Amino acid sequence: MNDLPLTHGWLPIVIQAVAVLVIVVVIWRTPSRFWLHWILLGITSGAALAGVAYWFIHSQALADGPAVPALWVWVAATGLVVVLAITNWRTTRWGRRSAALAAIPLCALCVAMTVNAWTGYLPTVGAVADRVTGAHLPNEVDEATVQDMLRRGERPTAGTMVSVKIPDDASGFRHRDELVYLPPAWFASNPPPALPAIMMAGGEFGTPRDWPTTGEARATADAFADKHGGNAPILVFVDTSGEFTNDTECVNGPRGNAADHLIKGVVPYVVAHFGARPQAAHWGFAGWSAGGTCALTTTLMHPDMFSTFLDIDGQLGPNAGSKTQTVARLFGSDLDAYLAFDPQTVMARHGPYDGVAAWFAVSGPGQPTYRPAAATDTPTAPVDPDSLDTEHDAVAQHLCSMAGGYGIECAVVPGNGGHSFTTAARVFADALPWLAGRLGTPDVPAVALPGAPR
After folding, report:
1. Burial code of 345-377, b = ≥16 C-beta within 10 A, e = fewer?
2. Sign of CA dihedral 9, 10, 11, 12
3. Which of 139, 165, 286, 358 is buried deepest, with most CB atoms within 10 A?
4. Which region, left, alpha or beta, applies to residue 123 given φ > 0 means left and ψ of -120 to 50 means alpha?
5. Which domains occur in the chain, in start order?
6. Which keywords fit this entry according to its UniProt record (predicted)?
7. How many CB atoms are closer than 10 A to CB 433?
8. Cα–Cα distance between 434 and 430 in angstroms, integer?
C-alpha cells in the first residue's frame, strides 16, 4: 500500500469514479421540480465556490502556474453536493441522505488529490502516512549519534540524514527542526573532511522533509556519491516558513525573519557543527518555486556567502500577489524593505558580480539558453513585476539576461515537465554534477553550464 502512487495510476481514478457514482445516486430519479430548484442552485453554488477559489489562489499568489481544469470541476462538485445534502435531508430516505453526506468528503478528497497531482507533492500513500505520523526518514539520526559514529570510525555506505535544532537567537525566527545530509565521505576521518554545502528550499507550503523525500534529493545525492568514491556536497534542508501555511518568501518581515535565519543561523551552524567549508566559493543554494526565488534572492544579496544557485521555476522576486500586495503582505507596506529584497534592485545596487553562476530551470520543453558573465555598462533594465509575463521561461530569460550584464554566468534550462516537485527532482539530478563540481567537491570534475561553449 505504501508504494501506491497518488499522482497517477488506478487509485486516483477509482476514487474519482466512486465520487461520481455517489453523486449520481444522490440525484437519480429526482423529480423535475427538484431539478429546477435545488440542483440548479447547487450547480450555481458550486460554480461560485470555484470562482472564489480561483480568485483566492490568484490574489494570494499561491501558485506559480495555472491549475489543472479538473481542480475547478471538483471544487464546483463539492459546492453542489453540499447543497444537495442540505436540501435532500428532509425529503428523502436514509439511503440517499447517507449518499449525500458521503459525497461531501469524497469530493473534498478529489480536490485534495487533484492539487496533489498538480504539484506532485505527495507521490505515494506512504508519503501521506509519513506526513501524518511524522515518521523519521530512513537512517535519520541526531547529532549525538553522528558524533558517536565518528568516534567509532563507522563509515556508512550511504548518506546519513541528521535532524538538527538550530538556535533562533540571531534571527528570532521560530522554525521547525531541519535536516542535514552527510555523504559517506564525511565519515572518512575525525574530524571530518571539509566539504562544500548546498542549502535547499522547497515551495511556499511545505516542510524541510520535502526535498529529501518528494524531491528525491537524498536518493540523488546517494547515487552521485556512489559514483564519486562517497563524495558529494553536504545538503542542508532548511525551513523557510516556520509552519506549513506561512509563506515568508525568505525575507525579513511581518511573517518572520526568514532571511536572517538562513544567513545568521543556518550557515554558521553548519560550518561550526559539520565542518562545511565556509568560503562563498563552496556554498550553493538550490530551490524550487518559492524556494527558487529564495535561492536567487539570497545569493544576489550575499555573494560573500554563496557563489552558485539553482533556481527551479522561481519568480522575478518575492511574490505575494501584485507588487502592492507583496509590499503590504511581506514588508508591512515598507517599500524600502521590499527593494532591499528585490533581485533586480539588488543587482543594480551591487554592481558587477565576480565568480557567481546560476542555473535557471523552467518547466516546459525547449533548448538551453546560455549567457556568459559579461559585465557591461548598460545591462538589461529592470521591469515592473506587474508588467512582465509570469510564464517561468519569460521570467528566467529576463533574469538571466540582466544577471549576465552584471557579471553572472547563467543558463536558462528547460526542465521538460510541469511545475511540480516531480520535475524539480529530475532537474536537481541533472544539475548536481554542475553544482558539485563548481563548489569544489573532492574528486568531482567541473562541468560547464548547459549550452555553454566547450
Report:
1. ebbeeeeebeebbbbbbbbbeeeebbbebeeee
2. positive
3. 286
4. alpha
5. 10-119 (no CATH), 136-438 (3.40.50.1820)
6. Hydrolase, Membrane, Secreted, Transmembrane, Transmembrane helix
7. 17
8. 8
DSSP lists the bridge partners of residue 311 as 287, 360
C-alpha cell at 75: 471544487
Please report where in the chains the cell 549519534 appears, as a residue.
Answer: 145
| pLDDT tens by residue, 65-93 | 677 889 999 999 999 889 888 877 666 67
Asked if the model's pLDDT at residue 4 lies above 80, the reply is no
Which residues have C-beta within 8 Å of that of residue 187, sequence separation ≥ 6? 149, 150, 154, 155, 156, 160
Helix then strand then coil, % of the chain, to nearest 5: 45, 10, 40
Backbone angles phi, psi at 211, to 5 degrees: -60, -50
Please give the helix or strand (H or E) that residue 247 lies within, else none: none
Contact between 103 and 74 under an 8 Å Cβ cutoff? The reply is: no
Angle, alpha carbons 280-188-212 (nearest 5°): 60
Q: Mean per-residue pLDDT for 100-104?
A: 89
Q: Where are the alpha helices (DSSP H) in 311-379?
A: 323-331, 335-340, 343-350
